[in-house]
Each structure stands twice: as C-alpha cells, then as structure tokens.
Amino acid sequence: MRFIESILAVTLLFGYLILWKVKEIRQHAVTGINPKVMSKSTSNIQRFMDNYSKVLMVYSIAFVVIHSFNFQLYSLFTRFEVLNKPLFDLSGFFVGIIGLGFCLYAQLKMGASWRVGIDEDIKTELVMNGLYAYIRNPTYLGLFLLNSGIWLLWPTWTVFLFNVLFVLFLEIQVRCEEDFLVARHGDVYVEYKQKTKRYFPFIY
Fold first, then answer.
1. Architecture of the domain made up of 2-195
2. Cross-strand pairs, 116
3. What is the model's pTM?
C-alpha cells in the first residue's frame, strides 16, 4: 500500500501545483499582472512571510522525497499505526480532492483579483458573493484540507510538523491581509468581515 499512498499524495501535490501555475500563467496573459506579489511587498512582515513560504516549499519537497522512497530515521518518518490503513488512505485522498476543489473555486471566483500575497500597487475588487458570502478565505480552507489529506496518506511526525507550520503561516498571513483590506476598503470590508468567518462557515 505504501506505493499507492505515495502515488495518491504526489497526485494531490502536483494537482495543486498545476492549478496554481495554470492560474498564474493565464492571469498574467490576460491582464498583464503577475499575481505573485508577496516578494514585492514593502512590508517587513510580508517579506518574512515570503521567505517562510520558501522554507515550507523546501520542507514539502524534502518530505515528498523521503516518504516516496520510504526512508527511515528514528520515528520521524514512521507512519502512525492507527492511521496506516487503506480506509484512511482513501479518506485522505478524498479530503485532498475536496481541498483542490475549494482552491479551484476560489481561483475562478476571484478572477483578476486573485493574488499570492498582498498587492500594494493595484486596488483589487472585493469578492463577497457565492461561497465568499460565508467565508473570506476559501483558498486557505482548500489548502488546509489538502494538507490534512496528505497527512492521512502519510501520517508521520514529519508531515504533522509541516501542517503545524503551515497553519501558523496561514494564521499570520490572513491577519496581515485583513488589516490591509480594512485600510484599503474601509467600512465595506469591516462590515463584510463582521458577517463572515475566516475559514469555516458559522464557526471560525
């Protein structure tokens, strides 16, 4: 089953990379705007977050290689026995696919407003309908589900730590974005923020 686990996990990861890259290329071709703006920020925090994201990228590449080839080092890469079952493999892949669905939905719904980071130069339109009428960050919800699915496929301490670091990244970044949008859009965003949740409808 470990070969199948690896195929499913890598499929999810490549699925997200394809979604992200296709959106980036198409948006740049249609609008002339490069949606990757985090590294261009004048904010110290955003530049830190850009470096943080690069560390996460290197970490993710490392654990993909390690788990795909079944390397072992103490218990860091050993699967938790209680989760090392076909049912959890299938559940993880299903959860990951749902996560990719949220990411795709957000990309399509955001249209030309979609960014990776905070765009300090171009004022983007607020999207407040559809799923955005209930949660402000479908992309982040999708990424959370995607990473949770990968952890169910590879239930090890290494992937668990990655998820902890990734959630911390999201929690910092989302607050930076909220502060920026309040400053940029004023009362319109404040009222929208009061009526919606960050990730999970009616919960958080």
1. Up-down Bundle (1.20)
2. 36
3. 0.91
* 121-144: pLDDT as tens digits: 998 999 999 999 999 999 999 999
Name the token pair of 117: 């980071």
What's the CA gap between 98 and 182, in Å, rounded? 30
H helices present in 69-202, as ranges: 86-110, 138-153, 157-185, 187-195
149-180 per-position pLDDT tens digit: 999 999 999 999 999 999 999 999 999 999 99
Instruction: Return the sign of the alpha-carbon dihedral for residues 96, 103, 136, 119.
Output: positive
Residue 197 phi/psi, 5-degree rounding, is -110, 165
Asked if residues 79 and 112 have their Cβ atoms less than 8 Å apart, the reply is no
CA distance 174 to 179: 9
Phi/psi of residue 126, nearest 5 degrees: -75, 135
Check if the beta carbon of residue 189 is closer than 8 Å to that of residue 125: no
Closest by CA position to 132, among listed 35, 197, 203, 202: 197
Give the pLDDT score at 1: 54
